[in-house]
UniProtKB/TrEMBL annotation:
Gene3D superfamilies: Homeodomain-like, Tetracycline Repressor, domain 2. InterPro entries: Homeodomain-like_sf (IPR009057), HTH-type_TetR-like_transc_reg (IPR050109), HTH_TetR (IPR001647), KstR2_TetR_C (IPR041490), Tet_transcr_reg_TetR-rel_C_sf (IPR036271). This is TetR/AcrR family transcriptional regulator. Keywords: DNA-binding, Transcription, Transcription regulation. Pfam families: TetR_C_24, TetR_N. Residues 2-62 form the HTH tetR-type domain. GO terms for molecular function: DNA-binding transcription factor activity; transcription cis-regulatory region binding. It comes from Candidatus Zymogenus saltonus. It comes from the Bacteria. SUPFAM superfamilies: Homeodomain-like, Tetracyclin repressor-like, C-terminal domain.
Length: 210
């Protein structure tokens, strides 16, 4: 049962990414997954619920990856960089699906499904806020409203990754991660933590590519 469900979710990612939410057909998802329509509908009663599972479980996977990386004994500054790198890499890996979430998620999807997606997004913001709070407790992050800072960080990552995906060649992955890291480090790290990190924080890009 679990294997069948995973096959369906993997197929859904491909079909939603290729066709968008509104043009995606449950028949196509069943065919791509190699299951019958009955099996598909047994696992997911509607396209909206399947889309919700595809998005929310993808976000849960990102959070799991971040939590695992934060359990290491790496210095705080490396944890901070890991949080950015993992999120950007997952966005790029599932860029087509991320575009659907970014641009289409509020149109024609059940309210309950939207709430599920927003709930998981809220938990991701909580995870970022918790990491900032841990940094504050160790005098590595400046005093600030960590919830607001987390919302700002997630919003910046979403919008910069969206730029990367929508306008290929205008900016590359390294520029995105370096900019986020240097910009956020400059605004959030305490002076003592910033001094320890000297030479490890890249300068942000100063001008657009010609």
């Amino acid at each position: 049962m679990k294997e069948t469900r995973e096959k369906i979710l993997n197929a859904a990612v491909r079909v939603f990414s290729r066709n968008g939410f509104h043009q995606a057909k449950m028949d196509d998802i069943a065919e791509t997954a190699g299951v019958s329509k009955g099996t598909l509908y047994y696992n997911f009663e509607s396209k909206s619920l399947l889309f919700s599972a595809t998005v929310t479980e993808g976000m849960e996977a990102v959070m799991g990856e971040i939590r695992t990386s934060l359990k290491s004994d790496l210095p705080f500054i490396d944890h901070f960089r890991k949080l950015i790198d993992i999120n950007v890499d997952r966005y790029i890996r599932y860029s087509d699906l991320a575009q659907i979430v970014f641009n289409e998620v509020s149109s024609g999807i059940d309210e309950s499904v939207l709430r599920n997606i927003e709930e998981v997004r809220g938990r991701f913001i909580d995870l970022v806020a918790e990491e900032l709070e841990a940094g504050q407790a160790d005098n590595r992050i400046r005093p600030c409203n960590t919830r607001l800072a987390a919302v700002a960080i997630v919003g910046m990552m979403d919008n910069l990754c969206n730029l990367l995906v929508r306008y290929p060649g205008s900016v590359d992955r390294g520029e995105i991660t370096d900019f986020l890291f240097s910009f956020l480090a400059a605004g959030l790290l305490t002076r003592s933590e910033a001094d320890k990190a000297k030479g490890r924080i890249p300068d942000p890009p100063m001008k657009e590519k010609a």
